[in-house]
Amino acid sequence: MPRFRAILDTMPAYKAGKAVVSADGRSYKLSSNESPYDPLPSVVEAIAKAATEVHRYPDPAATELTDAIAERYGVPAEHVALGAGSVTVAQQLFETVSEPGAEVVYAWRSFEAYPLLADLAGATSVRVPLAEETHHLEAMAEAITPETRMVFVCNPNNPTGTVVRAAELEAFLNRVPENVLVVLDEAYREYVRDADVTDGLTVYRDRPNVAVLRTFSKAYGLAGLRVGYLIANEPVASAVRKTMVPFAVNHLAQAAAVASLAAEDELLERVEAVVKERTRVRETLIAQGWTVPATEANFVWLRLGGRTMDFAAACAAEGVAVRPFADEGARISIGSPEANDTFLAAAAAFRNA
Ligand code: PMP
């Protein structure tokens, strides 16, 4: 038997959202915060064209995509670092800053991959409980020690959908020592409509220790292809680029992401429709008697405590897959109107049962 790292014995496995099917064959996957829309024809076309070239390695520097991202956001290409999904970029960030004994601070509950990546990197997780479902930035600042190397601020937060606002974030950033990297995980940025929520790209330039994490998986609908990126000042971006496994972002993914940026107007119209559905879903849930935190992401959060798994099972019986966190609550992605209606009917029936 080969010897494995001891940490593997205690690490939880990442639980990805799975589809479920009702007895009468209905299936609505609202468990992974994906786009409910099929890929755009222009994107499928770009993938098909790129497919004729897959006997060659991809461009290791993903030059065309890097330049397209840089142009889209008005940043120098040197500020962009790509990875196979933003979760891989997050892993690269851990590779960039971690050493045994290094501490990484994040809110809890937040994105499930943070503890996993910390364990893998040999870093120590410092979890700061949410306050009223929202990051408690003051407590997070207080949790920073001389061993802290990195802090994640997930904005909007997965799974609660809550946000930290500009003044609060600014005060926090002013308190974080310059040798601690602050990662603004903005995987759901395109769904934010609250004007008082900082867009990380407007603040990182003046802050050498801030990095912004974005993804093509959600609003841009490319979850299956795995493309994410970081935008930060040159020293951070180039350090992260060094940790990339060669050719990590494959040729089809690069082509699809370039095509998605070219079709951005259409994709952002879809985001707008999801945002409208989000309002409808939340308001309907509130009318049913649920407490639903205000959400700026493409999902809603229900704190269900001990009823969480029963709720998930009741939804599954109707073909609706939600994302339960046992004894805490469930996260439900905003899907198509039909999927949302089915979910809302299941939620109403559960409440009235
Ligand atoms: N950050 C957050 C907050 C997320 O919720 C997710 C996806 N669940 C990711 C990053 C990673 O997304 P991807 O790797 O698909 O880019």
UniProtKB/TrEMBL annotation:
Catalytic reaction equation(s): an aromatic L-alpha-amino acid + 2-oxoglutarate = an aromatic oxo-acid + L-glutamate
Keywords from the named record: Aminotransferase, Pyridoxal phosphate, Transferase
Domain Aminotransferase class I/classII large: 29-344
Taxonomy, superkingdom: Bacteria
InterPro entries with a match to the protein in the record: Aminotrans_II_pyridoxalP_BS, Aminotransferase_I/II_large, ArAT, HisP_aminotrans, HistidinolP_aminotransfase, PyrdxlP-dep_Trfase, PyrdxlP-dep_Trfase_major, PyrdxlP-dep_Trfase_small
GO biological process, alphabetically ordered: L-histidine biosynthetic process
Assembly with partners or alone: Homodimer.
Family membership noted in the UniProt record: Belongs to the class-II pyridoxal-phosphate-dependent aminotransferase family.
Function noted in UniProt: Aminotransferase that catalyzes the conversion of aromatic amino acids and 2-oxoglutarate into corresponding aromatic oxo acids and L-glutamate.
Name listed for the protein in its UniProt record: Aromatic amino acid aminotransferase
Organism: Planobispora rosea
